[in-house]
Structure formats: structure tokens, C-alpha cells
Write a structure and sequence with these properties.
By secondary structure, the protein is of the alpha+beta class. Helices cover 60% and strands 8% of the residues. The chain has a four-stranded mixed beta sheet with strand order 2-1-3-4, with helices on one face. Helix 4 (92-125) runs antiparallel to helix 5 (132-153).
Amino acid sequence: MAAMLKVYADRLSQPSRALIIFCRVNKLDFEEVTVNLGKGQHRTPEFKKINPMGQVPAIVDGRFRLFESHAILRYLATVFPGVPDHWYPVDLFTRAKIESILDWHHSNLRRGAATFVLHTVLGPSLGMTPNPKAAKEGENLLVRSLKTIESVWLKGDSKFLNGNPQPSIADLSLVCEIMQLELVGDERRDSILGPREKIGAWMENVKKATGPHFEEAHELIFKMKARLSANRVKTVSKL
């Protein structure tokens, strides 16, 4: 009997959520192993045997271990029978277009969004000194990245990236990244996403295509959003 796939994740992590949603939507048989980033569990010797980089997500599939979310999504979409082709198409031309988005993601959308969120709310909540300059640089890159998505990959009335009729692993990965903006509060989030109607429609399409698993995977983010919002209210009331 084959060992069950193990997914090591923290649902506060954008790529962890993308991986969990993918597994749920495609009915993969897996065990979710929580690695609490806030408690430093990703830095333990035990976890570093799974991923020497000390990051989530990571998987163990029998004797095979893998880290880096995009690589994991490619692996699962390719290896597990029954995963619909639209997630990671066998057609090499279509697949190459998806690969280009995934490669672009890390140094653009992810770097902008993660830097912005870290230096506005996440860092200070963990005791880091706020860095408005870094936050602004992250926000600028984030806004440029959102414009790029709209102008390059969401042309016309595209429901999903590259005009595809169904979502790919790139759609899921990028939308989970943008969902991290929930943590900065509604006003800041809306100031960035409000003008981007195509982004909003595309995100809704991805949510509908992956529901109810999308909502379930993001419950922890909304709980943290509520805590951060309450802390901001307390801070303002003391001023």
C-alpha cells in the first residue's frame, strides 16, 4: 500500500493555501501537516529534513520529497491521475505560457505583495520595526504587477489567465498571493484593488471555480485580519 501524500503547510502562507486548495479541488488523498511559522516550526531540525530551506509548503510522497510551491503544483498535476488537463496542460505551447507566468510571479507580484504586507502589518505584529520606505517600494511593485496581469494576461473579457476557459495552477498561485492583501485592512486593500476591475472579476472566477475549498483555506487569513484590525483600533484609541 502506497504511503499517503503529506503536505506540510501553514495556511497563513499564500503558496501553502494554493497547494491545499489544489489538492482539495482535485480530490487528492493527502494528510495536511501544519508547520506553524509563528512558532518557528519551519526552523526545526525535523522540518529541515523535509525542506532544508526551512520554508512551506513542502511535500513527502512516499520516499520522494519536494519543496517550492510551483514545483509541487507541477508535480501533483502531472503525477496524480484524474487531475484535469486545464490545470497544467499537456500541450507544450499552452504549458509554456503558464510557465512564463509562474517564473514572472516570484520576482514581481510575490515580491511586491509580500514586501508590502510584511512592512505594513505582519512585521509590526511580530515585533519588527515598521519600514514605511520598504512598504512603499513593495506597494509600487505590487501595483505595477497588477497592471501587468491585466494588460498582458487578462486581455479582453478573459475569465482566466492567457484567455483560458478554465483555471491553471498559475491562476490559483497568483490569486492566493493577492488574497494576502486582506491582512492590510479593507481601506488599503480597496485602494489598490478597487481600480483594477479585471483583477477583481478574475479573482471571483477563480474563487467560484475552486469553491468551497477556496473559502475554507482562507478562513485563517480572515481570522488574522480581524485580530490585526482590532489591534489597530486599540492603538488608535490610545492616541
